[in-house]
Design brief:
By secondary structure, the protein is of the alpha+beta class. It has 4 helices and 14 strands. The strands form 3 sheets. Strands 1, 4, 6, 7, 8, 10, 12, 13 and 14 form a 9-stranded antiparallel beta sheet that branches. It is elongated and about 85 Å long. It binds zinc ion (ZN). The site of zinc ion has 7 residues, from loops.
């Protein structure tokens, strides 16, 4: 190889390798964790296990997910890659969508205004799947998405799942040992 060819090769190789070294996430995923916050704001207004009053039915309930604040008409994003296994209406929480991510983990999206995907469709993390703006979830009167996590048919705190990133992937094992507070009573495919 001529000297100029070697130099050209090195420049091209560096141009390819440098961004990958600087931004290793580019190699496998544009997101840093297997599950992401499904709303842009990420502002949690009602947490998991929080008590709230269901005004319509005048009963106190315990919250089985988290409410994330947003604007009416704002997009809801798929928290992780998966299959849409349920689309329907929940007695508490209104229009509902469920994504199955693997044998153990499902995420649920309630209080939706519009659903943009159909049952059986494969979604990727970050895909637009719905919009918010409904007022069906009694846990908060502010416009919000109700986001839930089901692990082995029990509700877990979504914040525990969202904390796991690719560097701490072994934390998935911990989910198995978290004491669940609620069993899932809805028929969610
Ligand atoms: Zn809620």
């Amino acid at each position: 190889m001529r000297k100029s060819n070697v130099l050209a090769f090195l420049i091209v190789a560096a141009a390819i390798a440098l961004p990958l070294l600087l931004f290793p996430r580019m190699i496998y995923c544009s997101y840093k964790s297997p599950f992401i916050m499904p709303m842009a704001s990420g502002n949690i207004i009602v947490g998991f296990r929080d008590s709230y009053l269901d005004k319509m039915k005048q009963v106190e309930r315990k919250h089985t997910g988290i409410d994330i604040e947003g604007e009416a008409g704002e997009n809801v994003l798929a928290s992780g890659n998966g299959l849409v296994t349920y689309i329907g209406f929940s007695p508490i929480g209104g229009r509902t969508l469920v994504i199955r991510h693997n044998e153990k983990i499902k995420t649920t999206y309630l209080n939706l205004e519009q659903i943009l995907v159909s049952k059986g469709s494969q979604v990727s993390q970050g895909d637009r799947i719905a919009t918010i703006g409904a007022e069906d979830d009694p846990s908060s009167e502010t416009t919000h998405l109700h986001f839930g996590v089901i692990y082995d048919d029990k509700y877990l705190d979504p914040e525990d799942l969202l904390k796991i990133d690719y560097k701490s992937i072994s934390k998935f094992l911990y989910l198995k040992y978290i004491e669940p507070d609620f069993s899932v009573s809805l028929n969610q495919g």
